[in-house]
Structure prediction request, 351 residues.
Amino acid sequence: MDRIRLVTRSILIISLIVAVVAFLFSSPASRLLLPLFSQKHISSFLAQNRSFSNSSLPQMATKKAPVYFFSHGGPTVQYDTEHPAYPVLQNIGREITQKVKPKAVVVFSGHWEAEPNVIEVNSAEHTDLIYDFYGFPPEFYKAKYPNRGSPELASKIIGLLTNAGIKAKGVTRGLDHGVWSGFSVAFHPENNPLNVPLVQVSLYANQDVDMHYRLGQAVASLRDENIVIIGAGMSVHNLRDMFATRGDPRPLPYSVSFDEALKDAVEAPPSERRARMKDIAKRPDARQAHPRFDHLMPVYVAAGAAGDDAGKRTWTLHEGSMAWAQYRFGDVPTSRRRKQDVNYRCKMNTL
Prediction:
């Protein structure tokens, strides 16, 4: 407390000196005082006191919200509590709600492709769920996931995209299962509710990975406001082979080879990541792992939004013609830093 008061008094004294000096040097008396108070001496004095005051205050560096890629699984994921991915998604969700504590979440799902050169943003505040799957038991089509959007955030996203030269428009759309199935596990409405606005943004209806990387770059500044960006897809996703093998869980060769190549590219130094990720889309096993790139594109969006932050695969599972890699870009706030920030604010409030 004494230290804080000392800093405050120092700042007040410096401000008073600056005001007095400014007054004197703007008056006729400045001709007499100028030889006594050279600019060099005054600048030196102010610099010394500024240095003292800055070093006396705790550093409050702004941290960007991390970016995530979810391998979200199918419509069964929220019911299959014994699946290895279930607790993994739960842990990631708790990390976001309890450590990151975002202001909002923006999600790009592999289940929403707009137009080849246009991005759509869900600008509705209240939307229904989209049951975009077929052949499942009746109860699957009665699933609920409470969520609310944000027209204000949607408008901001459209502005960011427009400023980046990307054609974008707001639409009213439901939330597809590429979001709500995995989110029902990560952000369970009762056990770990999200409780912040959730805005979904489309992908392009094309197979251009670099366009999707640039899409992520266009919205990266949202992280400065502690808005979490999530790409939701699968690191390997081949439904054709899943049906052909009748769900055999033994990994197909490309499930392993492409998933590991994706890891190497995503975890490359940020200065190399974009080129490395562009190259892996040309691998022979890329089209085996993803006959269409819809479920792969969200990881490109996430990587683009990450900027200079490193990517890390936090978990994966090779299962038949699928792979479940989960990625985080950037750092998670530490409890120690949050405690320091809270203590500092408390001290300032007592002055």
In short: The longest strand covers residues 104-113. Confidence is low (pLDDT under 50) at residues 29-61, 337-351. The CA atoms of residues 214 and 263 lie 20 Å apart. The radius of gyration is 26 Å.
